[in-house]
Amino acid sequence: MSSVSFKHNQGVNQAQQANAAPPSAFSPPTTGTGVRTNPQGGLGGGAEMTRATTETSAMAPSATRSKRIQFVQAHVKTGRGSALSAESPRELLEKKAEVVFSQVNEMVRQGIIDQRGSTTQIVSVPEFYWNDNEALLSQHDKTELLGMVQAKVREAGLPNAIFVMGSVVTSEPAELMRRVQPHHMDDLGGILDLPAGALREAQAESLSQAPEDFTTPPSQARVELAAVISLAAAMPTEDGGSQPKDLSQDVLNEAARTLNTIKENQTHLAMLIGHASPRTMTNHFEAFLAADTPRERREALGHLCPRLEFTKNADGRDKITAFQTFLRGYEGNTTELMGLARSYKRSYAPFLLARSEFSDNSRNGALERGNPALKILREGPNTDVPQLHETGRQMFKTVRNEAIVVNGDGNSAPRLVQKYNPSDIDVPSYSRAKTGDEAPLQSRSYKQFPGGTAPDMSEAELTRHLTDAGRSPQDQMVPLPRDGQQMGLVICRDIDSDHFTNHIADSLSQADVFMLISAGISEATFEKKAPHGPVVAQNDGIRVKTHTRYGNTHQKLAQKVFEQREPDGQFGPARPVPSTLKDPDGPLPGEPGKWSVSDTYHLPNTDRSRASSWPDGIGDFDVPTLKERIALYAEEVAQIEGKLSWIDSTGNAAVADRDRSQYATVTRSLPFSQAQKDAWRANPQAGPEIMAEIQAGLRSDLESADQLLQAAQRRLAQLTPPSTENQRAE
Among 345, 587, 596, 724, which one is least packed by beta carbons within 10 Å? Predict the structure, then answer.
């Protein structure tokens, strides 16, 4: 491949100098959404997603609109290690930030990146870039990292860019367990009959940075300490208010004594709270207490707890009698009784449930068999088991995998976009416990991620959890640095879920740009699952590949790969990778850089660029590269024209006849979205209208392909004018 002649651009130096001053203070990261609320692109607010969210508007767009998009994507192996040595997590993060931004700065200096004012550059690194060898970072590490990245972005000289700086995986302490202090444990241990040291150890474990150990259930001390804190936090103060964050010893002691009462009577409380309603308590409580014979007791119990069944032998009779005896202790005081039952359900059962589920389906037998109260409660018609799981999650540490997004001017707060469908690699200790010698442990009660989602959770469960957590497609939207324009952003395995296909993809198709950062998602999956929006891209850190596509038909947007021969060196065209090498290795962070830079793509309804809009030496590619692009785009034009011709000759007639037998042929031949497929399948009469939508999308793709083709032809004509092969066209 011919070498590329790079020329330094004085305008680049000016831009770098203008942005060189460090920020006066680090802006806290934000999450939420920039929602397009009208056709002109007004921005609305969004939902809170992490504790780092601030009330200030983040990533506010500038007053102008971008008409071109260019993807600048790092080829780097992530999640496995690096070529960098460091004495501390902070030092390693600093070195990684320095490496990636020194490479971006060098590409800016060499003029590899399109720096025209109406171009928005999407600069990205893959998932897991900041985490080495399965190590989780702390909240403090993440805060420091965001400050580093924001400062580096400000110095990069790309004020119109959006930087998608990979993802960071953090372990966050169990906030519930912060509400007590180590000195509280002596009194609590005495009341609960547990060693104070075990309680201190349980608290320290829940607040540590280390990932959860899924090979054993949470300790009894951890379960009971969580229950005491939960009970204490729910107690009103003397004036009827809420307890302060730091709970007092007296309140904790009272909660511990309440827990003892609950533990002694949990089976009866489970029977009551899971199977009786306030109405049945009012109408049938006294009747059950007055029943004298076994038959009368069983009949009265059927009214009090309609779904509760006991065997008709002596054991069943004894259990009913014991339940009656327990209730007699609260005769005339059902308010206190039901309050105790609610406390059991709200503040003890959830943590017991999390402990018991460790042993479900294991060779060692289920702990539930030793705790009949949980089985009774879970089978009760009044029990919301998913909510119990969600409450129980409070005693576990949380792992978050979040993409970091920063505006190119570096003045707006970084934004964090969460991954919602975790992979085993996000928390390797979970994967090892699930597949190791200990047998599957916590596979049905995963507590580590926001929303309580699990790597092996069913699609229906995933959707229910995310819906209950208030997640929406807008959580995946990021405003671009231009007025009203948006980017859809998804992390790795999220895109390969039915939840994404059924609940998110169509909304993200309305974005101007879509970006996937991943670690192990194939090109085929990306092409199949990516929304049919104007322009989409993927950056994968396991396969070390990048992909760019445009339009409803996902045509290839050309990209050129550049690499350094040595760290901190200049970039030149990358050496070809053998076609037989499916997943190339490296480079690791700290090794010579390798980046792909895409062709610039004009967004729909924008003016075409003049060839003279290219500053001298910026984005200057060699003649063979331009000829390759011309051949690619000419082929794409022909393919799209062929699809339009097929619609005229065959497709329109197939949908007009409302012939369901043609459904598979038509949907395979044309770029139908899932929503369009479902709509046509449900209503054959909608076929012609849907086909008109497909035709409009194809015509738009044809226009885009033709624009790309003509732009490459004009640029080639500039480099090889008819008068001479050795001079540039003015």
Answer: 724
